[in-house]
Each structure stands twice: as structure tokens, then as C-alpha cells.
């Protein structure tokens, strides 16, 4: 069963909307309707145990011809940091579900994920999204050596933006310390730098455009490769208390 949502205005994003944008309800049968692009969402009913069990089964064992998610994203949804397999642990279920729906509809084309998402039913996609959203996992050690100057540059842009380039602060939408603005805005804190750089580059090149109102495409177009790398390396090193547990 698809998770139902109700609209909640995202103030940071609304300030950038066209003047004609107005609040509107989301029809129950259109959880991803036009209003999705204008508002954050809140989940009316948390997933039940059966949904989580279904999601876990898909993640660990696959479904039909679809291989298990753990093959690429690991048991706890940690990914591997290579750039292709992001950390899914604790991302908002609504956000993960939307990405899978976008893969399935080719709104976010991807050679690997599109056929996977298309092979899953809507309920399967919702269930596996809810499962990964429920997890917490240790934060892996960041890859590579990065200078203090690069980290400082990334932190400055993340927190204050870059007025001379017209870049807004990442925290405006992604929350304090990049912990996300659930359920529609993903966390950045603890995500892999290589994955974030790859996505920013895709937005800049027009290879990805399934974000809110083209906002990320517009932002990425103003960023240099150095900006992307600095922000991404900074956020990979920020522990997200909402999705990270101490190693046992």
C-alpha cells in the first residue's frame, strides 16, 4: 500500500518558488502529484510490521528476477563509497520511494537502477524504501586524504553559500549539518563524497533533472568541480545522529 501524505510548506524552498505557486491538497490517489513539487511531505501513517518485513525480504533476498539490494548497497544499506552505490541507511522513506518511482518511469534514467525499479511493483518499492528508512548503521571512515582548507571551503559553502556565485547555503533545504528535511529532502551528512560529486555533475550536465523545480540543476550549474568536491568531502565527514549508530 502506498504511504499517504499531507502537504507541509517547506519555507526554505517556497521562497524560491514563482509568485503564482499556491498551497494545494494532494489527492489521496496522487501522492506524487503536482503538489509534491511545491511542498514537503509528512507521513500520516508509519509503515506497519508487514511492510517492513516485506521490504527486508526484498532487500536481503531480492524479488522475482531482481537481485537483492544488499548486493550493491550492503546489509545495512551503507553502500560502498565508490560513487555508484550511495548510503541508503535512514534516508526518508518518501524520498527513497520517489527515487525508485523516478527510476521506474525513466524520470531519473540509470543503466542499473532503472531496470531494477521497473521490475518491482509500486508496493515493493514503497516497502523496501520504508525498510531502509528504518535502519541505522555505523558511519564508515571517509575515503582519501583531504586538506583542512578543502574541508573549510566545503563547510563555508554548506553553511553560508557563496553569494558571489549565487549559491544558496545547503542547510537552507538539507537542514542543520545536512541531516535532511524528512521526508522529501535527503540527508547529506555521512553520504559518500564520490556519490554526491557524481550527482552534482549529472545535474550540471543535465543528465539528472528529477529534483524540485529544477533547483538542484540550477545550483549545480553555478558550481565548479572544486566546489562540488569540497562540499561533498565536507559532508561525508559529518556524522548524522539521526541515521548513525556507534559500531558495536
From TrEMBL:
<feature type="domain" description="Cytochrome c">
    <location>
        <begin position="50"/>
        <end position="136"/>
    </location>
</feature>
<keyword id="KW-0349">Heme</keyword>
<dbReference type="Pfam" id="PF00034">
    <property type="entry name" value="Cytochrom_C"/>
</dbReference>
<feature type="domain" description="Cytochrome c">
    <location>
        <begin position="149"/>
        <end position="239"/>
    </location>
</feature>
<dbReference type="GO" id="GO:0009055">
    <property type="term" value="F:electron transfer activity"/>
</dbReference>
<feature type="signal peptide">
    <location>
        <begin position="1"/>
        <end position="23"/>
    </location>
</feature>
<keyword id="KW-0614">Plasmid</keyword>
<dbReference type="InterPro" id="IPR009056">
    <property type="entry name" value="Cyt_c-like_dom"/>
</dbReference>
<keyword id="KW-0249">Electron transport</keyword>
<keyword id="KW-0813">Transport</keyword>
<protein>
    <submittedName>
        <fullName>Cytochrome c4</fullName>
    </submittedName>
</protein>
<keyword id="KW-0408">Iron</keyword>
<dbReference type="InterPro" id="IPR036909">
    <property type="entry name" value="Cyt_c-like_dom_sf"/>
</dbReference>
<keyword id="KW-0732">Signal</keyword>
<dbReference type="GO" id="GO:0046872">
    <property type="term" value="F:metal ion binding"/>
</dbReference>
<keyword id="KW-0479">Metal-binding</keyword>
<dbReference type="GO" id="GO:0020037">
    <property type="term" value="F:heme binding"/>
</dbReference>
<dbReference type="InterPro" id="IPR050597">
    <property type="entry name" value="Cytochrome_c_Oxidase_Subunit"/>
</dbReference>
